[in-house]
Design brief:
about 45 residues, mainly alpha
Length: about 45
């Protein structure tokens, strides 16, 4: 969505990296993995 509205590659890359780090931390914490999959799809 950000990419489509703002069209800023560096900003999009930063947001994608933050998303990936967030998924990594959530998986490592063994929090609700079903919820994680519901938000991000297959992880």
């Amino acid at each position: 969505m950000y990419k489509d509205v703002v069209d800023n590659k560096r900003g999009s890359d930063l947001l994608k990296a933050m998303e990936e780090k967030n998924k990594e931390l959530l998986k490592e914490s063994n929090k609700d993995l079903d919820l994680l999959a519901g938000v991000y799809g297959e992880i």
